[in-house]
């Protein structure tokens, strides 16, 4: 419909202009004191990370309410901050009421007040950042690939000033990290090692041998560290980029004192990814060959039957009730996620944004 314009007398126009200015001032005052969101850290909120299209700054975070069973906002960052979040939303860390959103291709981390989702600071100068972990009080580690085929690093972020104070050289293409027993374990995905950093000194104290392609790590209820190694596939450098070599995936129960004594459970091929734990840390979950598998931490062999026969772009386990969240991500158009009972039975599904890859519970 075309807009309708009506002519007012001069006095009326001056009155309306003055009234409008007062109204705008009133609205501005309300905006300063009344945020759009006032979220409680009660486990009822789920942040869905949407990568967005590579090369464009349309990555976003969807806000899902478990209470109302609905997606509240598919552009939460833009709604609150009136600007783009960035290019390739990779991951997100929660520390108390602060969020650290890693935006890979924008080479930055957005620091967020999670109650309001207002941006607090932007940490720049990173090179292909991947994941973040709380390493110590006032300190967050951020894994960085830096450059394909080259040595990766871990950036040390001072959360009091939101500045990078140091970088620590690790292996090639560092991915997931785990804080366990006072040390930070870093999975170097383009080789077969795990770097061990002392967060008190920010120094690598050991490099542990594992299998090819470690990507994610967890610590179970007994204190044992599990490492999922996805294998490594090498491709030719010219079209049609043929596979030159490929190694299988392995799940490792790591012996940090004597790595050679670790329990190694081999897969038949590569591609296993996203190692997860349930709330009691007694069950392991991972993605492999278009399905999600579940395995007891006391098992001595890999499961042969999947829990969910569905290919996900990303998935996670809700620590409140072990509900499984899995994302479906067509490379064009709207993505969605499906929720499953711990038994693997589907509950419901919801549309989100482009390329949803992860879930953060708050």
TrEMBL record:
PANTHER family linked to this entry: DIHYDRO-HEME D1 DEHYDROGENASE (PTHR47197:SF3), PROTEIN NIRF (PTHR47197)
Keywords: Signal
InterPro entries tied to this protein: DUF5074 (IPR031815), Host-pathogen_enzymatic-act (IPR051200), WD40/YVTN_repeat-like_dom_sf (IPR015943), YVTN_b-propeller_repeat (IPR011964)
Signal peptide: 1-25
Protein name: YncE family protein
Organism: Hymenobacter sediminicola
NCBIfam families tied to this protein: beta_rpt_yvtn
